[in-house]
Every structure is written in structure tokens, then in C-alpha cells.
Amino acid sequence: MISGILNIKKEPGFTSHDVVAKLRGIVHQKKIGHTGTLDPDATGVLPVCLGKATKLCDIIGDWDKTYEAVLLLGRETDTEDTSGQTLKEREVAVTEEEIRDIILSFQGSYDQIPPMYSAKKINGKKLYELAREGKTVERKPRPVHFYEIEILDISFPLVRFRVTCSKGTYIRTLCHDIGEKLGCGAAMESLLRTKVGRFTLDDAITLAQTEEAVKKGTIESKILGIEEILAEYPRVCCTKEGDRLLANGNPLVQALVDAQEKNGWIRMCSSEGSFAGVYQWDEKRNRYFPVKMF
Questions:
Q1: Choice among 18, 39, 64, 258 that is catalytic
Q2: Catalytic residue check, 243
Q3: Which residues partner with 110 through β-bridges?
């Protein structure tokens, strides 16, 4: 079984689940998971975890992301992008300066209401399922953060911009909210994810390229190992006496660890240097406890 992370360049027309399903056939294994949903029409970086690396899906999903979006002014839709049904069309009577000021005003934190056409669940049901039934339910706003917003081009009625944001952010909703603030309405025309944490578009490969690498026997060179993903955390080894406890995923007292790392996560290895999992020091219980075992 292959374990590690593939940086897939998602193409239009595929859901994130489609990508996972196709990869299962390409690499001939079932244990695969993606790290953050991209809409079918959206493209770009989609890190996919294989084998034991599926335990990293939530960690990578929490990383900041960078997108390039194209905003269409003057049109509102039910899905908040141009694939949806038009709800309203308005005249675009705004200046470039007003557009720049309004878009840049979203830099920082704001409370965003998730769109009805999204995979977010309420009472166990996905919002898009309710939306397809013609239902609209109240959604609680949640805080999101835009670390950087850069306007790349304004060619009425289209605006292209780049954003770096926190997890759980809907760029479609940002486009809608920009339109509301401008007073002319707006919908997202296209979306390209260019970065997820350390994964960039330049390093991503398509499903076809992945299949070709499998045929050539070079797929391993395209996969980032689990410990590489966790390289920011200190690497620590236990003593020989601690090897059995580590192998079973048990807590370790300080005397069984050859280090004094007590702040945050550490990569815990056997006495011979084999990576086993992520541990964290618990001050109250006076020992290292496993966070994730690999």
C-alpha cells in the first residue's frame, strides 16, 4: 500500500470525490482521501492522502489556501457562481476605484454565511441537498480571515483577484458579498486554487499524469512522505526501553524520551530512528501522549 500525499491538479467537471474515486482505480488501493472540497467547476491544487497518510487529511485541510477568482458584476445566482440560476440582474454603475476599495475592505476577518449550495451539514443533511429540494434554512455566520487580497485585473464587468484565506472560506460567497456591498450584485465566474499550505500549482499533476507515472513505475517520486509533511515539528527518539510502548501507541514518560521537547507537537521515533507518530507533552499527566500514530 502506498502511503503519502499526491498534489493533484483538479480539472473542471470533476468533484473532489470523483478525483478520489479515479485515483483508487489508478493506484489500485481503496484507502485514499482528499483534504478539502473543490466545487466541480473549480480547478487547481487538491492534495490527496493515500494509505496511512489519510490521517493527515484534517491537518492539511486546516492549512491556509490561495485562490485566483474571476468575479462577474451585475448578476446574482442561487449558487453564488455563474453555473447557477440567475436570480437578479442589475446595472453596473461603479467605478474601478470603488471596486478596489470594496474588495480590499474584506481583507482581515469577517463573518461569512455559508451558501445553501455547499457540502456543509445542518442536522445531518448537506445544504446542497436541501437547496435542490427548494428549501432554504438559516445558516449561522462563521468567522473567516483573508490574510491578503490582490486585484489582478478589472475589465468590466469582470474582476480578477487573488486571495489567501483561512480554512472554511467560500470564495463564491465572498464574490456575492462584494456584489452586495457594491450594490450591483455579483457571482463568481471561475476559481483556481493555486496553493494549499506548502503545495503549489507548479508542483501539481493531473490524473492523466498520475496514471502515466503509475505505468512507468515512477509514482513514488511524485508522492510526499508523511514525515516530510510534518517536518516543521521537532524530531525526537525514545529510548530502547520505550520502543514497545511506542509500537503500541502508548504514552511515554520523560525518562523514556531522549529529549526535553515539551512545547507543541513532536515527531516521535523509535530508538533506531523509525518515525511512529505525533506526540505531545501533557503537563498535568507528566508524560507524552500520542496525537496521531502512523
A1: 39
A2: no
A3: 144
